[in-house]
Design brief:
It contains 10 helices and 8 strands. The chain is α/β, with parallel strands linked by helices and 224 residues long. The structure holds ligand LLZGTKA7. It catalyses: orotidine 5'-phosphate + H(+) = UMP + CO2.
Amino acid sequence: MSNRIYVAIDTPDLSRALALAKRVRHHVGGIKLGLEFFCAHGAAGVREMAHLDLSVFLDLKLHDIPNTVAKAIQALGPIAPAILTVHASGGRAMLEDAKAAAPTGTKVVAVTMLTSLDATDLSDTGVTGAPHDHVLRLAELAHDAGVDGIVCSGAEVAAAKAAWPKGFFVVPGVRPADGPVGDQKRVVTPRQAIDAGASILVIGRPITQADDPDAAARAIAATL
Ligand SMILES: O=c1ccn([C@@H]2O[C@H](COP(=O)(O)O)[C@@H](O)[C@H]2O)c(=O)[nH]1
C-alpha cells in the first residue's frame, strides 16, 4: 500500500506550511491541515496547499447542530478534501447530515475520543467507564450513521476494526519509541498503529519539529 503517513502541518504561517510540505512530500502520503492553519488562512490557504498535489486531509473536527455542520461542509465543498473530520459526539443526525453534505470523494471520519485525553479526563467530563469502551460506543454510532470511519488512538483501533472491518481508521497520537509525547496521552509507535489496523497515521511534531523533517519522515516511513 502507498505511504500511510499524513503529516500534520500545524502552523499559522503559510510560507512555513508550504516549505514543510515541500520538504517531506516524498516520504508522506498526504498533508493534514487543522484549526491552526485554517483559522489563519481559510479555504484560500487550503487551496494554495492543494497545489502541491498531495492528498489533503482537512481536520476541522466540526461539532455543532446538524444544520450548521451540513452548511459548513457544503461551504467547504469546492475544496473537496480527501478526508474531513467531525466529532462523533455531535450525534447521529449530525453525522448523517455531515456525510450527506460532503462531496462524493471526501471521506467523513468521526473523532471519538481525542488522543490528548485519558481516563481521568473522560471522567471529568462526566463520562463513566474506560476510554476503550467510550471509543467503541462512538465507533458504533459513527458506523450506524453511515460515515466512512473514525479517529481513535492506536490502543483502540484493533477492537474498532474487528467490529467494522471496512471502516477507515485514522490514528493520531503517534510517537517514535522514546520520543517526547508532549500533550498526547494515548500514544503508540507508528509500527504499533499499523499492526493494530490503522488505515492512516497522523504525525505532526515528530516530523515538523525535527531538525531535518525530511529525514524524520523518511526514518518513520522506513519502520512501516
Ligand atoms: O484525537 C486526535 C485527533 C486529532 N489530532 C490531531 O493530530 C495531530 C497530531 O499532532 P502531533 O504533533 O503528532 O501530536 C494534531 O494536528 C491534532 O490536532 C490528535 O492529535 N488527536
